Amino acid sequence: MELAWLLVLAVLASERREAGGAETYGNASKSFLEFSVGKFRYFKLNRSFPEEAVLHHISSNVTFLIFQIHSQYQNTTVSFSRTLLPNTSGTGNDRGLVFILRPEQSMCTWYLETVDAEPVQNVAIPLSYSERDPIPGGCNLEFDLDIDPNLYLDYNFFETTIKFAPANLGYSRGADPPPCDIGMGRDFRWRLQYDVYQYFLPENDLTEDVLLQHLQKMAQVPQVKANAVKVVTLTANDKTVVSFSTLRGQGVIYNVIVWDPFLNTSAAYVPAHTYACSFEAVDNNCASLGRLSTKVFFTLFALLGLFICFFGHRFWKTGFIFLGFFFYILITRLTSIKYDVRLLLTAIAGSIGGTFLVAAWWRFGILTLCMLCIGLVLGFFVSTMTFFTPLGNLKVFHDDAVFWVIFSCIAILIPVIFMGCLRIMNILTCGVIGSYSVVLAIDSYMYTSLSYITLNVLRRALNMDFHRAFTNVPFQTNDFIVLATWGMLAVSGITLQIGRERRQPFPPPHPYKLWKQERERRITNILDPSHHIPPLRERLYGRLTQIKELFQKEQLAGERTPLLL
Predict the structure, then answer these.
(1) C-alpha angle with apex 379: 159 to 325, nearest 5 degrees?
(2) Can you point out the beta strands (E) in 135-188?
(3) For residues 185 and 173, what is the distance between their CA atoms, to the nearest angstrom?
(4) What digits encode the pLDDT tens for the residues 128-184?
(5) Could you tell me the pTM of the whole model?
(6) Helices 477-501 & 292-311 angle (0-180, nearest 10)
(7) Distance (Å, rounded) from C-alpha 167 to C-alpha 194?
(8) How high is the mean pLDDT of the chain?
């Protein structure tokens, strides 16, 4: 009897080993999912089949575990028990739980489920830490979990914000946790520091496999430091809130590493990702970003920009850009008009500004006003490019007063520098700004980071809280192609206009003056054939008469008088 019982136990043990042997891929249709520390596992969850995750053979020097699970956009719930409670479970597409181990404990269990009707593809991993490592979220006072290692992410059109709970110092199994808010010395959690990291997914790639693959580079401390960019370091006295510029349609992964400088140990929170858009929305979802009005507006703007790039030196068209930009900021800040209407009004206001500038030059030859607008447009663009670099993320520029003073000084400095060579300034403005309009048109159809050169400044002018956002953007293959296109157009336009205008007088005489001189010449020189050309009014009247004759009924030929009896 004892021999038969041993055989049964042997069979069950072999079946358990076979079920837990596939550490990388699996389907969550079995009674449990077996994990190993530090190894990722892919699996699918179904609504009708909640699953149990099991971790065996935990080392005795491990004091706590972080189990994390990720999906692209569908929510998944991870819990300590089958009964879901707010303080023992978490729901989302990037969620994790901290498990504090008891003495002699060598096995842990978590329960996984989803309420989505469709199967959810997930990747999960348990990570182990020792008593010297800080505990992410160990001093949580804001969120539901007692110990919360998660990053809570929120976004709008302007900024993406992550929040997390402060960490606590590590401690051994069975010991009491260190107090969170009693002492301020180095023996308490106040010595901890938080490094915030940012990682960009490939541009214009919304596939699930790519996301889950890159998430593996952001889960453990060594991989995060090797692959991501450290944005900022927070101390325990800082608020555990960090804001970034929103990049719609661009996948971004965030994570925080808490570091104990006294013991030189660290631990990673649960990474969180976002595309700043909805996969499930019917209109304007992640796969079809960009309104039709935006595409029409920037396509027409690109056509105008190409004209400016190659022929703008003789036509002062930059008034459209100058007035249109400030009018859009004004109506957005002061009114709640719909976006499409704002674009239409911006186009109208810009057209009025461009017409006014052209008319002022055509009729009165006012060069100062034209050159001032052109110089300020070039100065504005140089200033935006300056703050598009890492210089814009310096802490001093998070103060609005400092930012706008420096920004304005750079914008004003450019026309001052070019005061002695106005022709070159005008041609440079036409070439650079005109070709950049093509970049904005490309961005309305597909993502490119170069559009944020001006978009970040526009957001800062429209949103009072944008000053706290870090404005990092990816620079990948698509951006190099767009940058090359932009540079080629700018160089071509500048070269063409310099060659064409080399022997031309500057400033060119305004058309009204030329027309008046020609008119006087025709009046005084009777030998000139143009002297005998009728005035404009008579010529227009003659044209109208000819048009009327086209619509008159042709009369019959022959005798038209009545016969006399």
Answers:
(1) 55
(2) 152-155, 159-163
(3) 24
(4) 999 999 999 999 988 989 999 999 999 998 999 999 999 999 999 989 898 887 767
(5) 0.82
(6) 40
(7) 9
(8) 83
